[in-house]
Amino acid sequence: MAEITLQTISKSFGATRAVADLDLTVHDGEFVVLLGPTGAGKTTTLRLIAGLEKPEAGRVFIDGMDVTETPTSARNVAFVFQQYSLYPHYSVFENLAFPLKAPGQTLSTEEIKARVREIAELLRIDHKLENRATALSGGEMQRVAIGRALVRNPTVFLMDEPLSSLDAKLREDLRVELKRIQRDLGATIVYVTHDQLEAMTLADRIGVLNQGELVQIGDPREVYETPNSVYVAQRLGSPQINLLAVGMLELPLVPPSATTLGVRPEDIVLDQSGGGVAKVLNVEHLGVETVILLELAGQHLHALLGDAASLEEGAEISIGVREGAALFFDTNGKRVDPVKASAREEAVYGT
Amino acid sequence: MTDQSSDSSADGLTGQVAQNVAKATPAAVVRKVRGLSDRAIAWLFISPTIFLLLAINIFPLIWTVYLSFTNYRANRPGRPIEWVGTRNYERLLGNEDIWGYLQATAHFVVWTMIIQVIIGLGLALLINRNFKGASFWTTVILIPMMLSPAVVGTFWTYLYQPQTGIFSYIINLFVSVGPIDMIGSVDLAPWSIIIVDTWMWTPYIMLLCLAGLRSIPDYLYEAAEIDRANAWQKFWYITLPRIMPFLMLAVLFRGIENFKMFDMVVELTSGGPGSTTEVASINLKREAFEKWRTGYSSAFAVILFVTVFGLGNIYVKALNKVKQ
User: Fold this and answer.
1) Whole-complex ipTM
2) How far apart are alpha carbons A155 and A4 in whole angstroms?
């Protein structure tokens, strides 16, 4: 297992800059998730690490070695593609055994069999070993693809939206499985997704990408609670963060440069005098929690409430923001810290 | 689906009106209003094709089968046609020369296919590397295919000239064996046809292989690269299985064509020397239009047809197996 370092790396396709001066270090045994919408440069970053793309500028290091000029096959990385990149004319067993038969591998037939079986059991596809790769369901195919990455001991695992084409149940199962495998093996994984739930649950650290730039990286909680920009705030959380003009809700500690107020749906609280009065448009009971669509001065807000409050559609309610949970952003979309309580007191006493 | 459902809900009222009108109208009028049924229109569209198919394929085939059981001679139209039963077939299958002609045909078909598949696939792999000028070279390689087989046969007889031909000259640059008589020699004559056919039709195999190669997604090769596969493994695990259906189709088309190869062979060797290159189609033409044994040659044609048809069917079954 190893550490990956990208040093001011850049890659363009024609006029589009896919990755721009990106710096990233993934520590040994760390699970880093790269998050961003389509075209943010996530996949390109991954392909640069694998050597499937050559960078125009910058260096790639794996395990302290400069591998920028090293071909993919010599980097000893495993890659799980978004498409099930199985060898269609061969059985599941042959697909899984393929990486073990590469030149330079010296396993005996018996050892290969044992290893493949072990991985197949881990991924619960051992009963399908004799099936042809094309005769599997989508979920099984992707598990074989993941198995092909696991079957040898690569230095790093690179995964490009491996779960995106699976159904919800399977996605959840494999997500748990992946995290467990990573803990057991102490594997270094770089994982690309646009699904914030996957990012939050899998990552040791989340890196948020925007137009080829790494805009923020940190542990999931940190990125969620203190996003450095509106862009990052919008990438995490479901329903999305509510963005309001400052002043729409009565709040303390508003910094003078703030123009936008960000409130997570779960940070909206009811029956607090002083915030604002909103109209209930829709109530969705999801079991554990309730999603409420509100209208405040012509703007829609989502609120997430734990106790399924007996709210009627059309009712007028008074809302506020949980103390200390409001996020403030300036005109450039950058987050600004709230005014410190002591500073506020001074201001109050000043007037 | 969604369009339909939204339409039906929007047209609910009109539909209702239409139904009421239909109920009140006599059946004959309804038929007139509707005009031709879908089925009738379908038949109308395919009838020209069906007519042509019957006229120039099916009827001659049935007529040939009929003639093969008679002693009919096309050069004596007045003579009454006599039914001779299976006599033509018995004579054919008992004739050792016929087996010789079929052997010559098989030799030609098998060797042209083997050589053309190897060279065609090789060329396709080279062209597929997308080097500079690849499309120019593709066009150059395709030129022989665009020529008429009769023309090709004729000018190759000049190239094959033992004294003045360039073929003999080039071979002698590498090994000095003196003038080579490709067409006149019993051993070399079959190969003279194979070489010309290969020169002319390898581009066709290449073209179909190229189509197959272009259809292989890059990510399969990338996955193999990740798995540290070498070039040979990539070819064996990805390229070959993926282009196999294309390759087999090319062989099917070319195999059938070569089974009935006629024009080029006539121009090159006319079946000689002796009968070393007398492929089935040449013998058939001799029997039918030189000796005018129409019944007998019809029987031969039926045997050839059944052979090609049978082999073709077995082959298509194999092809379908490979495809899945």
Assistant:
1) 0.76
2) 10
